[in-house]
Every structure is written in structure tokens, then in C-alpha cells.
Known about the structure:
Number of domains: 1
Distance between the termini: 16 Å
Strand content: under 5%
Number of strands: 2
Largest sheet: 2 strands, antiparallel
Number of helices: 11
Radius of gyration: 18 Å
Amino acid sequence: MEIIGYIASLVIGISLGLIGGGGSILTVPVLVYLFGVEPVLATSYSLFIVGLSSLVGVIPKYKQGLVNLKTALIFGIPAIAAVFATRKFIVPVIPKQVFTLGDFIITKSILMMVLFAILMVAASVSMIRDKKKKAAAENGAQKFNYPMILLEGAVVGVLTGLVGAGGGFLIIPALVLLSNLPMKQAVGTSLLIIAAKSLIGFTGDVYQYTMDWKLLLTVSAIAVAGIFIGDALSKKIDGTKLKKGFGWFVLVMGIYIIVKELFFPGGGGH
Length: 270
């Protein structure tokens, strides 16, 4: 299982390098089902792995002039604050047993994984149908819808804090629609926002959990290697087709997790 886990870690990086997102949605399932990490801890590990990979991934984008620092700041500040607060104050107070439905007990672990799977399904839908946004955003001067950007930043921050996903699939459309960024610039800027909020969110956890640094650094290193492969491949492969294919894969994974957690609880990582 571990070998499959390491291969999957490479895929996480490749997808971040290729389509600027999506990879983070696989990190938690990989940690839980392939490495046997407890789900709440997996969301914490995911913040570190995704944050570090995105930080490395943003360097070539920045050199190509595809990172808009002003947008990253406006969107990033509420997102970072929300992520940190969620990890520090909200996640620790969620009870071990959240509620019961008849004989079925919804535990904190099951809640985290189901929340995550719902997010995966939403992400996959946005990856599969992604036509109109590009055309609309490529032209026109940059204009900021400040209240919406601040609100969306905070919402993405809370979601990131709860489930440990980078939220690139939420950030990229938001940047395109709310601040009129061209698609490629939105991808680069999104990586910077993901890196900052994930790593700062992770610092809210460092003192609360015992970290397996060996596993954490190994998976991160493999994901970072994947980013470089993905970046190289992105010059040769049509991103739209790839994004669609990846979207279908994420959709299947999301449905699998919902079915597994609700009907066959007690497996991997619990």
C-alpha cells in the first residue's frame, strides 16, 4: 500500500504542476487510505504537503510573470486568517461523536471524510464543465469586486481549514470572475495563495498533534518532484482535456469515499 501511496504522491504534484490545482483534493484520501493516517491528522498533513508543493510550484510561474501579487494579497489575507482560526479554534472543539442517525454514529473522522468527499464532487464538476469562464476573462481591464473577494477568501479559508484541501478549484474561478484575471495568471496566483494559507494554517496544528515528520517530508518531496514533471508536461499537453479527465477521476473518488464512509465505516485510518 505504501508504494501505491508514494506513486499517488507523485500524481498529486504532477496535477498541481499541470493544472494548478486538483492535486490537493487527493492528498487526504491518499494519506487516510494508503498510509493509514487518522483523518483529522491527515487534514493537517495535507496542509503542509499542499502548501510546500504549491510554494515550489509558484516559483516558475512567478518568473513567467503569471503571479498577480496585489490579487494574492487581497484574496489571501482573509483566507489565511480564516484557515488559521479554523485549525486553531474550530477543528479541536468538534466532538469525537458528532451526532447519531438511528444506530449509525457520525464520528469526527467520518464527518471530515464525507465533508471532504462532497468538496471533491463539487471540485470535479467545476473541472468537467469549464468553458464559459475563460472567454469572459481574457479581455477587459482588471477590476476588483472587493466585498466578494474578501468573502470568498474567508469561505475558502474555512473550507481549507476543515478538510485540508488547497481549494484551487474554488480560488481559480473566483480570481477569473471577481478580479478579471486571465486564466494562466489565475493559476499562478492561486498557487501563491494556496501555499501561504496552507502553510500558515498548518502552524496552528504543529503544537496540537504528534507529527510523523519522516512520512510528511517524504510525501512532500515526491509531490514537489511531481510538480516539476507536471510543469514540463503542461507545455506539451492540452490542459483542458487533461482537466476534464482528472475531473472525472476526482468525481469517482469522491463518490467512493461517501459510499465507503457511510456504508462501510471502520476502514483505513479510523
